Amino acid sequence: MLKLTSYGAVLAVTAVSLHADSKKSAEDQRIELVRGLSAEYATVKAYLPRSKKPLEIDAATGAYDKNAWQVVGRENGPAARTGELVQVTKIEVEKDAIILEVNGGFKGPKSGHWYDKVQVSGPISGGPVNGGSTAGPAQGGTSIAVRFSGGIGDITSSEIKKLLTPVLDFEKHSVTEQYVDTLTPELKKAVQEKRAVEGMDRDTVLLAMGRPNRKSRDVQDGVEFEDWIYGEPPGRVTFVTFKGQKVARVKDMYANPGGSVSEAVKPPQ
Hints:
The chain has 269 residues and is an alpha+beta fold. Helix content is 29%, strand content 26%. It has 6 helices and 12 strands. Strands 3-7-6-5-1-8 form a 6-stranded mixed sheet. A 4-stranded antiparallel sheet has the order 9-10-11-12, covered by helices on one side. The model is unreliable at 13-20, 110-134 and 262-269 (pLDDT under 50).
């Protein structure tokens, strides 16, 4: 009887351990999806209407209801037309769907984008990218839901990009490349690796890592510090601390269930 009890205890501990590993694996997948898709730029390959509800795409076939999208477009107008540039501004990971907010969603993008700073060569040399005659950044926003019939499984961000190929081309993003080319080699490498480093400004961090989960601010001796916090406990959490306009420190931590790591990160002196 004692042996059976001990065996049962071992099974219980094993089950708890497997459950914890499963939760950690799911959180790691969520982090990879968010970091791999957030702040990414893509060229529009099909008409995208502004929509309050996510525009749905079947993950199994890549198909979508063109007629339904046209109806929504007639009601709300376009978010983007073929050839225009859009940015993924937010990611939601659900059990059976990956939802991408594009250009700020239905309410549309805000002013003051990084691409306003980019200069292009040619006949309009010295002019901003969005002032040329070719298709530039789209001026509207929407959201897209990639739907899975049996759960998202172990899907990755690169696979989501492939599923979206009929609508969005993530391989063609010349405006993004132009901006990245203006950065120092260190910053350029960090953006390509989807991480923040000291010396970045807010636009570059957004390009590298997307929007943070949370922000917190503090003022010490008249100097403003701001933490951009990426990730949720339990799991990896990254703190990007700005001192004024530039990143002063980046710190990666692991937050345990029910625990807080905010007190462990202090503004640099």
